[in-house]
Amino acid sequence: QVQLVESGGGLVQAGGSLRVSCVASGRTFSNYHMGWFRQAPGKEREFVGAITWNGRSTLYGDSVRGRFAISRDNTKNTVALQMNSLKPEETDVYYCAAGSIVATTEGGYNYWGQGTKVTVSS
Q1: Residue 53 and residue 47: Cα distance in Å, rounded?
Q2: Is the distance from CB of 20 to CB of 69 less than 8 angstroms?
Q3: What's the pLDDT tens digit per position in 93-104?
Q4: Do residues 23 and 74 make contact, with C-beta atoms less than 8 angstroms apart?
Q5: Dihedral sign of CA atoms 103, 105, 109, 111 in order
């Protein structure tokens, strides 16, 4: 009952920045915590970060802490992931997810977007 659509992926040079976004529809967006994950072919889906329903707290994976930042705008039903100092190994499909808890695993989220591809060139 929650639909999530990511956008903003594309090609960026190593060391560059990119911002991806997720727009939610359906049930009340502000009721959900939001997470970002990423996945490359042959690899497990990796937790990137999460933000609480009111945007007051964030949580980041060790590999991105200090470089990435999550924000949300509940008036627009959007959540964004700002990615800085990108590395080639971070070429992945990036997914947003919604859930009733803040979690670092896929199982903690109930709804998922289709993903947006980010390619980081070396």
Answers
A1: 18
A2: no
A3: 999 999 999 999
A4: no
A5: positive
